[in-house]
Amino acid sequence: MPPDRNAPYNRTVEVLASKLRRRQIVGSRTTALETLLVLRQVVSKARFSNFEQLVEIIKTVGHRLVEAQPKEHSVGNTVRKVLHHIREEYQTATRGTSIATPKAQFSIAKFVLQGQPRKQITSALKSENRGTLKENDPDDPDSFARSLKPVLMEALQDVLDELETVYDNVSKNAKDHIHSDEIILTLGMSKTVEAFLKTAAHNRNYTVIVAETAPSYEGRQMAQSLSSAGVSTFLVPDSSIFALMSRVNKVILGAHAILANGGMFAITGSQIAATAARAHSTPVVVCAGQFKLTPLWNLYHEYAALDFGNPDEVLGFEEGQLVDKVDVVNPYWDYVRPELIDAYITNDGDHPPSSIYRLLKEAYDDEDTEL
Amino acid sequence: MTSMASYQPVLSISKPENKEENQFDIYEAFQRILKDEQMSPPLAAILALTEVIENSNAGTMFELVNALKDGAEILKHRTPNPISLNAGCELFIAFVTLLPHDSANFLDLKRELIRQGEQYAAEALTYRQKIADLAVGFIKDGSVILTHSYSRVVMQTLLLAHKRKRISVFVTEARPRGLGIKTAEALTAAGIPCSVILDVAVAYVMDKVDFVLVGSEAVVESGGLINAVGSNQIAIIAKAANKPFYALAESYKFHRLFPLSQYDLPSHNSKILAFTQALQPDPPGLMGQNPADHSGSADKSQIKMSPGLDPHPPVKITQEQICQNNPNVDYTRPDLISLVFSDVGSLTPEGVSQYLVGMFAG
């Protein structure tokens, strides 16, 4: 089906796309949430008479949103996640009604890809009649959509719930990661890290050193927030990260996007902190929700992955006579290599960088990697 | 191979009826299939095994699997370097034992297995293209690439990259077989700037290189790589210079093997790295004299060494002797490998074991 420009959901998609383009919505969780809300509208309003059409519709919408702001990776991730979930729902809904036998499709290529075949339970499958799910019904083309939509909405609700509880779930085990009298170094203002540190403070008495994270100085906000929550906090300039590292027990960072090789994009300064930590053999852990998992390998090869902040933060207009004499760049993200990271603390368990790859395989379908 | 000579009689004793009834020789079949330029040993092994099924009169699954295992043994013992074909044999035999079937008719099942094997071999020929497509995404415009020896999948990747980007290639000579020259000739013919370097010049060239790209003989369970000898030292140098080391491997080269060192490889034998025996033992009288001679003066010992004058007859070392004494393949540890590109995706070395466990464990 060609993308329907007059579809009832078109306006919401366009609104979000332009907001993303203008950077009115930023931050990986916010964009993920907004994307999900739009997709929910799309699914509820879309007209389709078979599953392929639905997938095509979602992919088209996903493509438009990703094109609008390719640097917010969680937009694409949310689309992929939704596609994965609706495929699962569709498969459970149609199991038993479809005639295709899994045995006939088994081949060596599949064997390599998926491993040993599951024990055959199809024979014991309940002969539950799901005859209501009929694709391409000529009499009533909407019947398929009508019967599938309720389960799809549930699936989307699951994704939404996961996003909404992400901070709680990441910080669930905070007290196991932070021990009493430890000194933690962090930087930037990551909501996830903030929630994590505050949760740990319920049980532990520890000290946080926050680097102020020039040029955005988000570290200052973080320090204020933590100290108002009763955590003993030091605010230090970025340049002293290395000097202080010998006293630090653990570095806790946030992430913008986690890449398939286990590396990540994070606020500038993360690379300094991670390298300094490596020099002192200090563990580096990253707190991030799994919606930040991005199934891309080669982002760090492409300059498009670089995102630049406002140069005004580096050299303000009060330095007017200098502005045309120097080039001012303010790269926003650092790429941190997987070797520098010891663990990811996610809303679904703790993982080493080397198993991020496997998480991705479970979270998304391969065919959606390119949207 | 000595092991082959000692092995074959045993086989003919244990399976006498096999020899008499059908004169099918799996090794011949294997060699015939390998004549196809595009065919790689694991796939040829799979096809040879389908021919075993075709020629076998086994009436039960047990007999059939035994026949396949015997066939695989023969291949293994008659091929000088069995590692990669082993991967293919293991894959196919595991598949045969695990194929879910409800066949009332054994003949049908056999036919199905043959069909599956042939279908896979045909399908697998497209994998190199798939890998090339994947790997090209990692090649930046203007890259300088170091590759080793000759590999079809590397060639395909480089040729594809050449269509879209400007690349230049250093290729090692890869002694003793000198296959690097074949690579260089093919690349130059395709218009890719290319230069052959000595195997011993890898460290010299490494600073000029953006990344290393090699093919593979097999990728083992640890994620390590088995490839033409020299790959290991390239990987070590690449690591020291902080350059990425990428391996390209079709998924049928994933091999359930866990070598801990070079000497755990199945291709290792006692001839490799053997010290050459002195032709005649030193007379006892000379033994005492020699050290004194050497300590006397360097010049003196130089003269002594020259042919004709010294008590030792001149020793000629031929290229063949060197070849015999040296391995064909070596093992590269997973921590030296940045990524493995395969038709199932770009994998970290650890990712490979996941597939092997999926196929062979449990």
Report on the structure:
Chain B: InterPro entries: eIF2B_alpha/beta/delta, elF-2B_alpha_N, IF-2B-related, IF_2B-like_C, NagB/RpiA_transferase-like. Chain B: Keywords: Cytoplasm, Initiation factor, Protein biosynthesis, Transferase. The complex is a heterodimer of chains A (371) and B (362). Helices cover 44% and strands 12% of the residues of chain A. Chain A folds into two domains: 155 residues, Four Helix Bundle (Hemerythrin (Met), subunit A); 199 residues, Translation initiation factor eif-2b, domain 2 (Rossmann fold, 3-Layer(aba) Sandwich). In chain A, strand 2, helix 11 and strand 3 form a beta-alpha-beta unit. With 371 residues, chain A is α/β, with parallel strands linked by helices. Chain A contains 15 helices and eleven strands. The radius of gyration of chain A is 24 Å and the shape is globular. In chain A, strands 3-2-1-4-7-10-11 form a seven-stranded mixed sheet. Chain A has a four-stranded mixed sheet with strand order 8-5-6-9, sandwiched between helices. Chain B is α/β, with parallel strands linked by helices. In chain B, 51% of the residues lie in helices and 12% in strands. A seven-stranded mixed sheet of chain B has the order 3-2-1-4-7-10-11. A four-stranded mixed sheet of chain B has the order 8-5-6-9, with helices on both faces. The N terminus of chain B is likely disordered. The chains are: A alpha/beta (371), B alpha/beta (362).
